[in-house]
Each structure stands twice: as C-alpha cells, then as structure tokens.
Amino acid sequence: MKKFIFLALLFSYINAQESINSRAIITSVDKTTLSSELSGNIIYLNKLEGDYFTKGEVLVKLNCDVYKAKKNKVAIEKNIAYLKYKKNKELESYKSIGKFEVDISKEEYRKQESEFQIASINVKRCNIFAPYNGRVVTRKANQFQSIKPNEEIIEIIGIDKLEAKTFVPSIWLQWLKKGNEIDLAIDETNTTIKAIIKEIGSVVDPVSQTVLVRVTLKKPYENIIPGMSATAIFKINK
What is the 3-state secondary structure (H, E, C) of the chain? Predict the structure, then answer.
C-alpha cells in the first residue's frame, strides 16, 4: 500500500514538470577488437591509442611472402590441371580415352580452382582494413611481433554512430515514447545536443525498478567521444 501511494505521488510530481532528468553515458554503436585469421609477423601497425582512421584504411599488415608463394604454386598446379583436362577432352573426341578419365581430370581442375581461391583469400587476409571511421582504443600487439590465428591485435571504436544509455524509473514508461526528441547536456564539453529515443528496454529491473533507454545523438556534434557523461533531459508529453 505504501509503495502504491509513493508511486502515485511520484507520478503526480512528474506530471507537474515540463521536463525531467536522468544521468547518461555516451557510447558507440561500433566497437570491436581486430584479430588476424592467419599466423605471421606484423610488418605494419602504426596507429597508436587515440589515433583516428577512416573506413577502408589499412590498419595492420602481415608479412605475406609465404602466402603469396603458396598462391603462385597453386596457380601453376591449376594451370597444369586445366591443360590435362583440355588434352583429355581432345583425346575423347578421337575416342582415345573414355568419359571417366575426362571427368576425373575435370574434377581435378575444379579442385585446383578451389585451392587457388583459398590461397587468394589468405593473401587478402594479410591486410586488415578498418571496417568504419573511428579511433584506436588500445593496441594489444606491436609491430614486428609474431602472432597466431585469432590473436587480438588492436581494439577500435567507431565515431559516426554515437548514442547515450541511461536508466530511468520504470514509471516513466507511462509517457516515454520511442522517437521522441530529448536534450543531452554533456558534462565534459559543457554543451547541449539533441538526441532521439532509439530504443526502450524490454525488461524492467525488479530491484531498482528502472529500465534502459538508448538514444541516438543527432548530428552535427563536435568533440563528443564515448565515455563522456551527460544529463538526459526528457520533455514530458502531457
């Protein structure tokens, strides 16, 4: 009963306000740690913590001599297999060999084609490209270091898709709407920017009686980076 009275009084108070606030943290939608799919020696890793990069930029290069040599070897084997298949097709036309021998040589050629594709993919994997515009969070390896497959190399974060996360009282669900505009007062820059409610959490925490709200920052914004604190100012629709 006391809880019901408290919630009723709280809702009455909220309903009397023009806006109401909650604390928020700036995050990035894009964040990942890049690793190599190959083993090898790092010959290029110039980005340091905090450095910017653009989408498609080469962040890491591995020594690719061995993989290039394997690709050349497979290319030669593929050409040999093709010549054998072509020769067998010609012999078949003269009834010198049967269809079975032709089919075997054809499948051998197809096998070498697949091997060549795999070798080509491995050569491409020697370079690791930036998947989006962003910045380096931390380096987990160093230039000239030898690494194994799936070993972490560099942690990065995107700068184009920033959002804020805040936990608000679940009673706010009575008026919170996805798509509503809010203000974000950024502590570190002492600026206020606009944001849009992107998603409202699917569950309410039973202990704190709060729900997660994610908001997307509207561009343009400057000097805003993940980890900054903010006050989320919600306008109440009466």
Answer: CHHHHHHHHHHHHHHCCCEEEEEEEEEECCEEEEECCCCEEEEECCCCCCCEECCCCEEEEECCHHHHHHHHHHHHHHHHHHHHHHHHHHHHHCCCCCHHHHHHHHHHHHHHHHHHHHHHHHHHCCEEECCCCEEEEEECCCCCCEECCCCEEEEEEECCCEEEEEEEEHHHHHCCCCCCEEEEEECCCCEEEEEEEEEECCCCCCCCCEEEEEEEECCCCCCCCCCCEEEEEEECCC
Take residue 8 and report the two structure tokens written for it: 């009723």
With contact defined as beta carbons under 8 Å apart, do 151 and 36 qualify? yes
Going by C-alpha positions, the residue among 155, 151, 139, 135 that lies closest to residue 45 is 139
pLDDT number for residue 235: 87
pLDDT for residue 53: 97
Is the N-terminal amide bond of 131 cis, ω within 30° of 0? no
Residue-wise pLDDT tens digits, 72-88 = 999 999 999 999 999 99
In the prediction, which pLDDT does 17 show?
Answer: 60
Neighbours of 142 (CB within 10 A): 10
From residue 88, alpha-carbon distances to 74, 95, 99, 106 in Å are 21, 10, 9, 9
Q: Can you tell me which residue has the tokens 């190959």? A: 38
Residue 18 is predicted with a pLDDT of 65
Q: How far apart, in whole angstroms, are the C-alpha atoms of residue 119 and residue 164?
A: 43
